[in-house]
Amino acid sequence: SVPCLHSRSRPSIKEAPNTMKSLRTNLLVAILILSPFHASGDKIENEPDSSTIPQTKRLRENTTDTCELCGLLGMTLLDDVYPKYTPTEGLPRAMNCAEIAEILQNTIDDASDTSCYDSWIDFNTQVPVFSQCCYSYSPVSTTVCEQEVQLLATGDDSDYNINIPPVPVNETAVNVALSIDYFALTNIDIFEGTTEVFLGIFMRWKDERLAWDPKEHGGCAFTNYKASTDPELTNIWVPSLDLRNRFDSLQNLPAAEGTVLFDGTVIWRRFGGVKGICLFDGLERFPYDELACPFYFENSQTFTLYNFDFPEEVLRFTELEAGERKYQEFTVVPEHTRTNKRDQRLDIVFCFKRSSNFYVNKLIVPTILFTILTFGSFLLDQRVGERLGFGVSTLLVIVAQ
Fold first, then answer.
1. What is the dihedral of CA 110, 114, 118, 121, to 10 degrees?
2. Strand, coil or helix: what is 145?
3. Which residues, 6 or more positions from 34, have their beta carbon under 8 angstroms from its beta carbon?
4. Residue 98: is it exposed, middle or buried by C-beta count within 10 angstroms (0-12/13-18/19+)?
5. Rounded Cα gap, residues 232 and 226, in angstroms
6. How far apart, in whole angstroms, are the C-alpha atoms of residue 233 and residue 392?
7. What stretch of H or E contains 399?
8. CA angle 298-275-335, nearest 5°?
9. What is the mean pLDDT of each run of 10 residues along the chain (401 residues)?
10. Residue 230 class from Cβ within 10 Å (0-12 exposed, 13-18 middle, 19+ buried)?
11. Where are the beta strands (DSSP E) in 300-344?
12. What is the pLDDT of residues 295-316, one digit of tens each?
């Protein structure tokens, strides 16, 4: 076990090189999921007739015809629409979509598809106006588009295998981005030696077998698949992440769908209680103790390697909203909690501080006061019989309280 009080500074860790790219991709998913793809505005006439969806095509390098705000996904820019957004240093307020698209063009370093894609993600991360400024001409609904994409990628006629990891070409491991959100402490059982916390586990990886070209599929840029570590409940391959010092396996977390972007990037986030076995340290300082409990997250598959890509803030603390606050014996101490990032494992040492005010007010302060009162017996005359009774009564009060 590792004590909390003697390691207040966090270790110096070399950060992953793709941290910013990971954050951009994660925020892009939030933009796409939280906003509809068809913006409200003037109706566009002369829409082309298309009754069928072309067969899916895997994304290749140099497939982008135009590097524009909407052209990247084969959609049309609504020039005269004024979207709602928060002004930034490079983007003044009250600009229409045409002016915003021109600003995006000026941020592109070169005409390559890589630069276009990265600039598009970066721009929409700062100013999420994509859903308000872009319109798809395709009469095909998003539901039909996603159904066709999933059927071609993981249907009965596809060669997709959920048991085979998507290891990139010329590599030996799957690159998996991992971050964890801490929400609440559920329970600490000192006698059992366990700690249960409520966490959100975020993972991102790329599976090129699931990629498609949105330009040829009515503009749908993402879809959701059933995702689970149980092979009977999943439609796609997922990493097998678990606790080394587990009391309950992470495989028991509630099922959650995985979101797949058009380039094959898979976003999978699960929430639930995680229970680990701990050798607590610091109990001798009761009631001012801080208990340390390490959680070791690692790959539970023997022959499949993961290269974990950690963001700068791999562990985030978020409080759950509660209508009525109740007494809690322990609370987490974020400034004492430490993380250790490794290629194949993430170590988190949570530190929990006991709520000492209850013991101070109900035990320590009354005991001190009654102990001081016992000296009052020396102020009484030795011939007074109540002297002994006073001392015994004070002692009984101390024991009873």
1. 120
2. helix
3. none
4. middle
5. 10
6. 69
7. helix 386-400
8. 80
9. 50 41 45 41 37 35 52 73 79 83 73 60 62 67 84 89 88 88 90 91 92 78 88 91 88 88 88 90 80 88 76 83 63 90 86 85 83 80 76 78 68
10. exposed
11. 306-309, 315-317, 330-332, 338-341
12. 999 887 766 677 788 888 889 9
Q: Which two tokens stand for residue 35?
A: 């906003």
Residue with tokens 């110096």: 12
Structure tokens at 332: 């987490």
Q: How many helices (H) and strands (E) does the chain have?
A: 8, 14
To which residue do tokens 């097998």 refer? 240
pLDDT tens digits along 34-55: 444 333 333 333 333 433 333 3
Task: Give me 288's structure tokens.
Answer: 């001012």
Amino acid at 136: S
- Residue 147, helix vs strand vs coil: helix
In terms of residues, how long is the chain?
A: 401
Count of alpha carbons within 13 angstroms of residue 101, beta-carbon side: 22
Cα–Cα distances in Å, from 260 out to 64, 180, 187, 206? 19, 20, 35, 9
Residues 91-94: contacts with CB under 8 Å, at least 24 apart: 91/126, 91/127
- Dist CA 305 CA 299 (whole Å): 8
